[in-house]
Write a structure and sequence with these properties.
Shape: globular
Distance between the termini: 34 Å
Number of strands: 21
Structural class: alpha/beta
Number of helices: 16
Largest sheet: 6 strands, mixed
Radius of gyration: 21 Å
Length: 418
């Protein structure tokens, strides 16, 4: 496996391990932070990449010279490997610009609670089991998080497709928002059974799938959302019947994701009350509202990187703990930030916020990062460790946001204090 320490590749390693394969992995980060795991033997030398039945690579290695050095009977992208591992199963595919890891995890978790032990592939790990992937021989269902960033979602022909939302993301690959929407539409066309949509405004191409009788179960209405320190309580209706739900994470987005999970499972024939009980037991994923206590302070680590996700996460956290919170945000990939730049404007107005360097794999553009910090109304922070230490000393509540390496840096400090 090339890029073995990435979240998606680690999840795939679990699946291959469950199927009985001996799995070796290579990653350029391995020399610094990698250690072999029960399901994955890390290889540290490039010249060790030989004599394999299969080489699966992440998107980061798509054009890498390392692919030419690998001696394997078959070489394929990781998503092709995932689909091949789950051949013959009823595929529940989850896609969208944000929230797809959570929805995939919710569906997999609920199926497990409902005595249907599914296979699954997620780009993050469950908090309780530490797994992001599993192959199960006892269930016909496989729940899979797709990836539209590199177009690999187009390789799937699912039985069921759940789309969380579609925003102006990954345009460097798709070239235009219309092309991105058509990509999701094309997957909807080949979906064998049913397409499910979240509570967002979708492009007309996606809405037109209803004319193909693939969206017959969409008469849902979100009635109310109430957030407390315990989590989020929400009510929604289906065909004039009201339902009440709870999930132990914060925000309207979590309520919307939970209802999308409900839509899928209800269509599959599960009892409505049993589904809602299962959702209430959802343990969560790493990097998704992970809560740490440091003295009297609460520190939240969250992967939110899209402007709407960030805005809601900050507003929800502030509604619970006051506007005196401290925010650290690390944007990831300059081109990705540029495609949503207007939505980022004044993102942290009224809050004390620090913006870290914009990270593009290992490259950092300090000048751009400083300009971006001004756009979002934040102070530019070059030394995160020192600034984070000072923030902890104030006793303030802190929220850590972003898709770069800020999670690992913050968690390393917080775990050290346990």
């Amino acid at each position: 496996m090339l890029g073995a320490l990435g979240h998606g590749m680690s999840s795939l390693a679990w699946i291959l391990y469950d199927k009985g394969f001996s799995v070796d992995g290579f990653d350029v980060k391995a020399k610094k932070s990698g250690t072999s795991k029960p399901y994955l033997n890390l290889t540290f030398q490039e010249n060790d990449l030989h004599d394999y039945d299969l080489c699966s690579y992440s998107s980061a290695f798509k054009n890498s010279s390392l692919l030419k050095k690998v001696k394997a009977s078959k070489v394929e992208h990781r998503f092709e490997t995932v689909l091949n591992c789950f051949q013959g199963k009823s595929l529940i595919l989850v896609g969208g610009s944000h929230g797809k890891s959570t929805v995939t995890a919710l569906i997999a978790h609920c199926l497990n609670v409902l005595d249907t032990e599914p296979s699954f592939y997620i780009g993050a790990n469950f908090i309780d089991s530490g797994r992001g992937g599993k192959f199960s021989s006892s269930s016909d269902f496989a729940v899979v998080e797709s990836d539209e960033s590199d177009g690999s979602i187009l390789k799937a022909i699912p039985e069921y497709l759940a789309i969380t939302n579609i925003d102006r993301e990954h345009l460097p690959f798709w070239k235009s928002f219309d092309a991105l929407a058509l990509g999701f539409y094309s997957v909807g066309l080949v979906t064998k059974e049913q397409v499910f949509l979240g509570f967002w405004d979708f492009p007309n191409e996606i809405k037109s799938l209803s004319g193909l009788q693939k969206m017959s179960d969409q008469n849902y209405d979100l009635k109310s959302v109430r957030v407390s320190e315990e989590g989020t309580y929400f009510t929604f209706s289906l065909n004039n019947r009201n339902f009440e739900g709870y999930i132990k994470f914060w925000g309207k987005v979590y309520a919307i994701n939970a209802i999308l999970c409900f839509k899928v499972l209800r269509h599959l024939g599960f009892n409505c009350d049993a589904i809602l009980e299962a959702i209430a037991k959802y343990p969560g994923l790493t990097r998704r509202q992970e809560v740490f206590k440091y003295g009297s302070s609460i520190v939240i680590l969250d992967y939110a990187h899209h402007p709407e996700e960030i805005r809601e996460m900050v507003q929800t956290f502030a509604s619970l703990y006051g506007k005196d919170i401290i925010i650290f945000y690390q944007p990831y990939r300059k081109l990705r930030v540029l495609t949503t730049l207007f939505s980022h404007k004044n993102l942290f107005q009224s809050y004390k916020a620090y913006c870290l360097e914009v990270q593009d794999d290992s490259k950092v553009d300090i000048s751009f990062s400083q300009r971006f910090a001004r756009i979002v109304n934040a102070d530019f922070c070059l030394d995160f460790e020192e600034t984070f230490e000072k923030a902890l000393a104030t006793g303030s509540h802190i929220i850590i946001l972003g898709a770069g390496d800020i999670y690992d840096r913050a968690k390393q400090r917080l775990v050290r204090s346990d």
